[in-house]
Amino acid sequence: MSDWNTKIIEEFRGNAGKVGGPFEGASMIIIHTIGAKSGEERETPLVYFAQDDGTIVIVASAAGAPKHPAWYHNATATPRFDVEVGTERFPVDSVEISGEERDLVWKNVVATSPGFGDYQVKTDRLIPLLRLTRV
Fold it and tell me: What are the b/e assignments for 82-100, b being 16+ CB within 10 Å?
């Protein structure tokens, strides 16, 4: 895990899910995916978007990199994994959002956090959105 992620995770856990710096005020989550190749648990801090139906949306932006982030591949290979939100840890099922639904959710993501729109401009790939439903 990168030092960057390690510091964010430590701050998250030390402050009941709150993180400062560039993530000040953002809703943060830690996903615990299983490595598709290694089989080992991987922890990744991400911004999330709570939905009216109680689900959570996460964005596989990789800051506009040309390839999807590793956590995306892990989450799609093993779509049931644990997450941490605040001080709570619980299992979720993950499903990629597609089509018109994705377009609508993407519009709301970018309206809330315009930086994600900037990431989309930087890459040729369509940035995936995953819906997490508590099990």
Answer: bbbbeeeeeebebeebeee
Q: Is 124 exposed, middle or buried (0-12, 13-18, 19+ CB in 10 A)?
A: exposed
Which ranges of the chain have pLDDT less than 70?
1
Instruction: Check residue 78 and report its DSSP letter.
Output: S
DSSP category for residue 19: -
Hey, what are 9's tokens?
A: 């995770």
Q: Is the pTM value of this prediction over 0.85?
A: yes
CA atoms 62, 70, 74, 89: torsion sign: negative
The reported pLDDT for the residue numbered 1 is 53
Query: Residue for token digits 């990199």?
Result: 65
> Is CATH 1.20.1260.10 the classification given to domain 3-134?
no
State the Cα–Cα distance between residues 126 and 1, nearest whole angstrom: 25
Task: Give the start-to-end residue ranges of the domains of the chain.
Answer: 3-134
Please report where in the chains the tokens 């089989």 appear, as a residue. Answer: 39
Return the SS3 of 56.
strand
Identify the pLDDT of residue 2: 79
